[in-house]
Amino acid sequence: MSRILIRVFWLMLIGGLALQGCTPPKPVRLGAPIEGYSHTSAAINRFSVNGGGGPNLAPYGYGGGQMCCASLPVKWHPGLTVVVEWVKDPDPYAYGRWPERVFSDAWSKRMEEHKMRYTHHRAVVPVAQYEDLGIVNVHFLPCNQVAVSAGTTYPGRPDYPFHFPQKMQEPATCPQP
Question: Where are the domains of the chain?
């Protein structure tokens, strides 16, 4: 009888250990939604965080909704950075001054010339410390500077890591990197 109990014990132990292998591991990284804020007079026509797309931003504007997704660690760690890439239109209201009829061939030609003045940027940006991963907030600042947070707090709250004014002016000269 004791041999049967020992076998049952071992079968239960082995079965229990085997079932532990079926428990999914906790994720190390997750996809977090992306929002953006332009604190300058330029429009951000496109941007991405680690390859995940963000919304278009009007001058001095908020991103108009969340886009998906930037892959980030569930827990923040020292040295955490993201790659932010963006396309900037330094004169987003130029078309309002053009004499051509909107969407005419002449207007479209002028728009193609205007797009040649767009600037393309890429920056490796530190991510502000967070306790829990939340929305990735990207702030576009004068002199092509960028600030990124990724926690569960949001702009305007006292515990948010950045307190930039919504409208910031470009200085006459920007510091060299």
Answer: 26-149
Residues of the chain with pLDDT under 70: 1-27, 63-65, 177
Whether the Cβ atoms of residue 80 and residue 127 lie closer than 8 Å to each other: yes
43 neighbors 96 (Cβ within 8 angstroms): no
DSSP 155: T
Q: Return the pLDDT at 6.
A: 59
Q: Does domain 26-149 have CATH number 1.10.3470?
A: no
CA dihedral of residues 102, 106, 110, 113 (deg, nearest 10): 140
Alpha carbon distances (Å) from 89 to 7, 26, 40, 143: 74, 42, 11, 14
Answer yes or no: pTM beyond 0.85. Answer: no
Which tokens in the block code for residue 163? 């307190």
